[in-house]
Amino acid sequence: MHKDSWWHRVQRRLCVLCLLCALSVPSGAQINTTRMIDIGRNAIYFDDYVLAIQYFNLVINAKPYLYEPYFYRGLAKFYLDDYYGANQDMTNAIERNPFYPTSYLVRGLSRIHLNRTKEAIYDYTKAVEMEPDNRSAWHNLTLCYMELDSLQTADSLTNILIRKWPKQATGYGVKCQIKLAQKDTTAAETWIDKAIEADKYNVPALSMKSQILMARNAFPDAEKVLDEALRLQSKQPGNYINRALCRYHQDNYRGAMADYDQALSIDSTNFIGHYNRGLLRANVGEDNLAIEDFNFIIQKHPDDMMAIFNRATLLENTGDYRGAIRDYTTVIEEYPKFLYGYERRAAARRKLGDIRGATKDEEHVLKEQIAHRYGYSTPTSRQKNKTRKQSDKDIDEYNSLVVADDEEAPKQYSSEIRGKVQNREVETTLIKPLDSTYKIYNELKPDSALIYFNLAYEQAQQGIIAEAISNLDIAIGINKNFAEAYYNRGVLKLLNDQPDAAVLDLSKAGELGIHTAYSLIKKTQKKRPKTKN
Q1: Pairwise CA distance, residues 404 & 391, whole Å
Q2: Residue 403 DSSP label
Q3: Considering Cα of 482, then 484, then 487, then 489, what sign does the dihedral take?
Q4: What SS3 state is found at 243?
Q5: Residue 279 CB coordination number (10 Å)
Q6: What is the mean pLDDT of residues 391-415?
Q7: How far apart are CA 503 and CA 489, in angstroms?
Q8: Is residue 244 within 8 Å of 275, Cβ to Cβ?
Q9: Using alpha carbons only, what angle is made at residue 419 by residues 418 and 421, rounded to the nearest 5 degrees?
Q10: Is the Cβ–Cβ distance between 342 and 364 less than 8 Å?
């Protein structure tokens, strides 16, 4: 073990030294492109994707007709969550060599992340034509058709999966998903049992089995299945949350609390873990700890009215009547027909000594109840139309546990592509003008691109975003390799609500050497709404 670690350190240092030497090579000099590709691949193997991109840039500049540097650079970008850049590089690789199936596989995964499902279907279709025994390609092709609600086609593809790999759980598991989408839970359970029979150590299959049992309220049986799943893989927060729900419904609050704590120790930002633990803490009288959980939820999702209402009741219980009234008011403004909110605010106001405010709320409730009894409506303020969060489906179920298997959870697309994603924190700020640095970018006109770059920076500071972007367009037109201009233009496009165009610019900035661009891409990669394309 020590010898391997020592050798890996030596290899990494050699990589860095080679890069320093390579980057010092004059632009007109010859480079060993095969050697550069090997070193770049080695950098990918050690998860140093930014370093790898620099190597492949050298090869592309020297021999732009080769497909390998585009492929490997795209792979590095994929691992950095730069799906736009990965898609473009894989397209360049395919244009140069349309007979390399892995290019289609990686581009397909990139397009899935970009919600370009039909284009991903094209890629996986090409991949299975060239590699008919690639199980991952067949699997992802099937899931893409499911994403488009083409369940009949997906079912036919699943039959191929089962026929080609009858001893693998994959096809049976997908068949179960299709039956669940068709609301046929009996058939779904039959197929997931076949998946477990094929591979009793398949944790996703065990997890799906437990969810089917939970839907039937067979909580003791579901808990046993989850015990086995967690024995096989102990770092699955979703399975801890589901087991906590099973234990909760069997009145095992201590066990449920332990599972929520374990889930959050693995994934401290898990929304459902915090929400359900907060409700459970409230249920057992740990109000202050419950408030901490709801504070976390509201900080991440400030428009989650159900979480705000639950926090209000907890604040009222702990004597913070002003905080409770604030939260009740927020909910009432969003749901003017929610009478229980008025009742609770009236109680909090009365405890605070605001008799007039309490009486007003109580009179409003009485008036609405009479109106409801006699079948006429009273005028109310117009309710806003907002997208609800996971727990915010029905405000009248404010104290119900959230189902852990949220319908918006992403499908799992398998891949044989390996690698880790770098996860750096970065502030969304512009790069400031530095004359001594930027004059090197254009030898013929050393100041022209810089002038527009500096002017754009000044305009951005004054809030003149459109003009700043226009001047960065000019700077980039003068110098196509002006990395800082791409970066700043990407940041400004983010501010201008142009996320797709922003990521393209940030991808180019990262490719040209501004490595924090990839961290900003990762930071801005939020879950996109599903589209039927």
Answers
A1: 10
A2: P
A3: negative
A4: helix
A5: 22
A6: 61
A7: 10
A8: no
A9: 140
A10: yes
| CB neighbour class for 30 (10 Å; exposed up to 12, middle 13-18, buried from 19) | exposed
Q: Taking the CA of residue 158 as centre, how many other CA atoms within 13 Å lie in the half-sphere pointing to its CB?
A: 23
DSSP 288-307: HHHHHHHHHHHHH-TT-HHH
Query: Six-digit token pair at 370?
Result: 């009479």
CB 458 within 8 A of CB 499: no
Can you give the length of the chain in residues? 533
Verdict on whether the full-model pTM lies above 0.85: no
| Alpha-carbon gap, residue 424 to 517, rounded angstroms | 10
3-state secondary structure of 172: helix
pLDDT tens readout for residues 68-83: 999 999 999 999 999 9
Contact 141/128 with Cβ under 8 angstroms?
Answer: yes
Contacts of range 463-469, beta carbons closer than 8 Å, 24 or more positions apart: 465/492, 465/495, 465/496, 466/496, 468/492, 469/493, 469/496
Give yes or no for a contact between 6 and 42, defined as CB atoms under 8 angstroms apart: no
pLDDT tens per residue, range 442-484: 455 556 788 888 888 888 888 888 998 998 999 899 888 888 8
Phi-psi region of 319 (alpha: psi -120 to 50; beta: other; left: phi over 0): left
Contact predicate 230/211, CB 8 Å: no
Secondary element (H or E) of residue 122: helix 117-130
Provide the angle, in degrees to the nearest 10, between the axes of the packed helices 483-495 and 516-524. 20
User: Which residues, including other chains, have CB under 8 Å from residue 520's CB and lie 6 or more apart?
Assistant: 426, 428, 490, 491, 506
Query: Cα separations (Å) of 473 from 115, 194, 342?
Result: 28, 58, 54
Q: Which two tokens stand for residue 533?
A: 């394309």
Q: What angle do CA 58, 415, 189 make, to 5 degrees?
A: 170
Give the contacts of 98 (CB within 8 A, at least 6 positions apart).
none
Would you state the structure tokens that stand for residue 65, as one six-digit string?
A: 């007709």
Q: Residue 28: how many CB atoms within 10 A of its CB?
A: 5
